[in-house]
Amino acid sequence: VKIGIVGGTGDIGEGMAMRLSTVFDLVVGSREQDKAEASCTITRETLKNRGQECSLCGVTNQDAVDGADVVILAIPFRHVVPTLSTLHGFEDKIVISPVNPMEKKDHFVFVPPPEGSAALLIQKLLPKEARLCCAFNTIAANRWKALDEELAYSVPVCGDEEEAKQQVMGIVNRISKLQAFNAGPLAVSPQIESLTPLVLNIARYNRMRDVGIQFR
Amino acid sequence: VKIGIVGGTGDIGEGMAMRLSTVFDLVVGSREQDKAEASCTITRETLKNRGQECSLCGVTNQDAVDGADVVILAIPFRHVVPTLSTLHGFEDKIVISPVNPMEKKDHFVFVPPPEGSAALLIQKLLPKEARLCCAFNTIAANRWKALDEELAYSVPVCGDEEEAKQQVMGIVNRISKLQAFNAGPLAVSPQIESLTPLVLNIARYNRMRDVGIQFR
Description:
With 216 residues, chain A is of the alpha/beta class. Chain A has helices spanning 11-20, 33-49, 61-66, 80-86, 118-125, 141-145, 162-173, 189-193, 195-205, and strands at residues 2-6, 25-30, 56-60, 70-73, 94-97, 102-104, 108-110, 131-134, 154-159, 179-184, 213-215. The longest helix of chain A has 17 residues, at 33-49.
């Protein structure tokens, strides 16, 4: 399976690329291809120095969509509408949203759009043939990049297409020690997305770093 | 510290009474005192057969408020308004809400009142001197009652009064292996309450029993 990352040079996207490129063929997208190529060079060097093989190349966001079977939207919530308005070709793709609509006041607040969640908004913006799932919402950028540490977290995955969801869960389960859990249809995405402000609040008020979640 | 349980003969309340009465002095309330007394007799017998000492007595819900420093509202969301309209004397009490507003369709849905959460509604119904916290939201009734098993879960606690919240966290940390985490002000209560439909969905879609959460 070939995975594309839209926003692959952002904080989360770059960390994902480091982990995913050792397991999957990756196309890393950015608004500017130069930036994507530079980021991939760094990732390749980092992994080479660790003795790890990888497969990735830097492209535009549109090429990351076109060249992949599964597309991860590694973008902040505020970029969802502008980014998706410039991209096409999502028909028949599996699309993964790790996007969390939130704001930082004194504490972190879940601020979903009128649709109820980032994922439900994204579903409206994608062609109906695209198969959308939520996944990776609660894994912090710092965790993705801390390559010396296993990601021993639970990952709730939701989506309306059972086969696509199973594929996404299979991808999750191949990364470090992540464990995928089927959380139900896309309608539960607000429950998943609001986990992220919660764990950020718990980190903030208990002076912890990069709090993750395990279901048991 | 003396703890009162309003709704102490319900599913959750009865399980809580079994665990809490071995650590704290407990007054277990019910709409009918007879029912509370009968439930306490069973709890006392159960714990005696296990060689565990306990301290509890069955009273009315009003007496459970009057006789306690800390009052746990162990009632379903639909009972919040009718129950609180019959009770008084919450001034200066610490009140704990484990209440989760949700509905079961095909999956479990978080259905908060217009205030944003059960806790924010309860805050409106209580006198302003009451000090309200959310805690225990995600611990399933079956887990409370499975006395052979430790409760090795994380418990997010939120509230606006720092001292009351520290007291509640202290209570949480004395029960089995529960670990309290400060999640911030009462405004984050929607994030905590929506965890429960999420873990119920994860249990349902992964054929697991009584899923709990750990932050780490």
